[in-house]
Amino acid sequence: xxKMNKTQIDKALRDSIFLDLLGEGGRxxxxxxINDRQYGVIMCAPPDGKHRYCRIGVIVAEDREDMxxxxxxxxxxxxxxxxxxxxxxxxxxxxxKIAKDKARREKEAEEKAKEANV
Length: 118
Fold this sequence. Notes:
Elements: H1 6-21, E1 32-33, E2 38-44, E3 51-57, H2 69-117
Antiparallel strand pairs: 1-2, 2-3
């Protein structure tokens, strides 16, 4: 199995909890009340089986005069989607720059090799 980094492990744990909370596949985990806003569960991380403490919290957005609850929720979804799009574009630009830089270095190395042979 390929080695998983922290981000991948955390995503896998969150995905498992969300599937469980949304009732897909039946209730699997035993949640413990931590305080008035959070519940917790101990889970085994996928690659190494180490136990991880995961908290589930409920945040209630404050009532806003300038927008409805539905509009606020949609604005947060839109902001998240925009950030993901920006992140993907930045990664693509980085990939392109890396490829260009590599091609430039290879070309310079070839030119140096030709000059050395002359």
